[in-house]
Design brief:
By secondary structure, the protein is mainly β. The protein has one domain (21-116). The protein has 1 helix and 8 strands; from the N terminus they run ββββββαββ. A hairpin with a 4-residue loop joins β4 and β5 (59-60).
Length: 120
């Protein structure tokens, strides 16, 4: 499975929002209601937001675990497998999935405001 991303750059300015929102393009894997494994660049650093599937509850986690990825992770993100990607990063904490705002398609971008909630 290849990295999921939009073929054409979406027009983030056209999305309705009452306040000015900075949108960050994403790449993702695992989609259930919304992307469950997201890679995003913010202020020159690469981050992974990972909401893992819990086999004991047969559901995805209500939280994203946030990791800062090393520069070397770029080649992994562009490869066909993200297996072990989280283990290459430094965990920064958890954030409820409900606190991450996705674009209307839930496939192109997240609001940068999520990083105001995470101590990076």
């Amino acid at each position: 499975m290849s990295v999921q991303s939009a073929a054409a750059e979406p027009d983030f300015t056209s999305w309705e929002n009452p306040v000015m929102t900075e949108w960050l393009p994403i790449r993702y894997r695992e989609f259930y209601d919304f992307p469950r494994m997201v890679v995003v660049e913010y202020q020159g650093d690469l981050f992974l937001l990972d909401s893992q599937f819990d086999h004991s509850t047969d559901d995805y986690s209500d939280d994203f675990v946030v990791y800062r990825l090393p520069d070397s992770a770029v080649s992994t993100v562009e490869s066909s497998s993200w297996e072990g990607l989280a283990s290459t990063g430094a965990p920064l904490g958890r954030i409820p999935t409900t606190r991450v705002t996705f674009d209307p398609t839930k496939r192109h971008a997240i609001a940068a405001a999520v990083f105001e909630r995470i101590k990076i």
